[in-house]
Design brief:
Rossmann fold, 6-stranded parallel β-sheet, 6 strands, 11% strand
Length: 313
Amino acid sequence: MLLLTLPAVRSCSSYSRSRNHLSRWGVIILATWSSVASASGQDAADEATFARQLPAEAKQHVYLFFLNGIDPLEFAQLSTLRDYCRELGFAKSWYGQFYHRWYFQRLIEDLWQRDEQARFVVVGFSAGAIAARDLANALKRENIPIDLLVYIGGATLTNSPRNRPENVRRLIHIRANDWVFRGWAIEGADNVKCEDVWHFGTPTHAETRRRLAEALAEVAGRVPVPQPKSTVWPATPSETVGTHPANQPHDVPHTHPTSLGLAPLPPLRNIAVSPVPTAADPASWDFLRATRQLRPVPAADYSGLPYQPLPRK
C-alpha cells in the first residue's frame, strides 16, 4: 500500500514544481509585456503632447478625411481615431464610408480653390483604404497634392505603383498580424505591422495613434504662420526722459509777434515723453504709443530766413 502511494506523491510534487516554473515564467512575460506597452503608451503621449502644442493657426489649414470599410456596426471604431485627431486640435475633419469617396473628392477640389495653404490628409481602413487610394489617384489627375495618405488594414493592397500615388508626400501603411488580412509591404511607405492585434484592432492601436500624431504634427509644421514683432525699434541712448528733443527748448526767435503789437509767446514747456520699451520688456509694448515715438529729429532752425509778417485784413 505504501509503494503504491509513493509514485503518486512524487508525481504530485513534480507537477507542483512545474506549475511553479510556469507561473514564474508567466510573471516574467507579463512584466516584460507591461513594460513594452507602457513604453509605447508613453511614446504616443509624447507625440500627442507635441501635436497639441502646435499653433492653432497652422492646424486650421489641415483637412482630414476618414473613409471606413465594410463595417456598418463600427466594430473597428475608426470614428474614435477621428475624435482623437480632433482632441489634438485638428478640428476640420470629415468621416464617411468608403462610398463617400466621390463626395470627398469634390470637397477637396473646392477647398483647394479656396485655401492657398490647404494641407490634405486621407485615412482609409480596410475597404476604405482602397477608396483612399482611388481618391488620391483621382486628385493626382487634378494636380492636387496629398500631404499624408494612411492605409489601415489594407490587406489587398500590393506593392504596385498604383498603390503609391506620385502626388502623395508621405504614405503610412499599417497592417495587422492576421492570417487572412495580412497584406504586403509597399515600397516607399512607412510599413508598420501591429503584432498583437488582428484586422479590426488596427484603428484603435496605440502605434496607429502615435504614427498619426507624429505625421499630423509634421504636416501642420509646414504651414507658414506669421510671427508678431516684439518691438518696432531698439532703444537708443537719446530716447530717454530729459534727453529727448521734445524736452529741449527750440532756438526760435520770438521777435515777430511783438512787431505786430501782440504779446510775446510764453516759453516752451518741457514735455515728459515716456521711454521706448526695450526688447527685455515686450509685455509693455503698445502699438499706438510706439507709432508716435519716432527716432530723434533735429530742431528746425529759422534764424537765417527773413521774416515777412502777414498783412492785416
